[in-house]
UniProtKB/TrEMBL annotation:
It comes from Ruegeria atlantica. Its EC number is 1.-.-.-. GO terms for molecular function: oxidoreductase activity. It is an enzyme of class 1 (oxidoreductase). Keywords: Oxidoreductase. This is Putative aminoacrylate peracid reductase RutC.
Amino acid sequence: MKIRRISSGGEFEAKVGYCRAVVANGFVFVAGTCAQGDNVPEDIVAQCKSSLEAIGKALAEAGAGFADVVRVNYYLPDMNEFELCWPLLVDAFGDNPPAATVVECNLITPKDRIEIEVTAVLPK
């Protein structure tokens, strides 16, 4: 089995010892992804958008897209904010919604409002 690793070059990849995504056995496993960049926005909607953009880049590099996502996990420190993200999630997944789980928990930094993790199937 061939395994391919995709790095975004993010600061936590080196600090924690992981990569943005791994392509293996016909699947793309995208690590939990928070908002990216030097100026992380404070609100959950902007953070969700940033997370989805980073995930989209990793999926594209792997040869997949949001329509290929079969599983998504959302992690939030405040479940009450999740509904604000729903329009972005419907827009991202459209007619191909994945199985989903939502967990309320602490994230890697107190400023993070959402972390998104996906698994996709590589298109044939």
